[in-house]
Specification:
70 residues; two-stranded antiparallel sheet; two-stranded parallel ribbon; alpha+beta
């Protein structure tokens, strides 16, 4: 993992607040109260499924790993 994504989770949701988060080094922003669909879709931008061993997808052999979209 070259970089660890940092995601702001805050109740400050005005466009200027989100921009300040990005300027502070955050890769993305999730507002509170948390919308679970938005939460998981934001995380999915930065994670990918990687197979372990010789198992097939869906067998519990998957792990999440930081992606390269940073």
């Amino acid at each position: 993992m070259k970089e660890l994504p940092v995601i702001a989770m805050t109740a400050h949701v005005m466009p200027a607040d989100i921009e300040r988060s990005r300027q502070a080094g955050m890769n993305d922003h999730i507002s509170k109260p948390i919308d679970t669909d938005a939460f998981y879709s934001t995380l999915a931008k930065y994670l990918k499924v990687v197979e372990r061993g010789h198992g097939q997808s869906g067998t519990g052999n998957e792990i999440l790993q930081a992606g390269s979209e940073i």
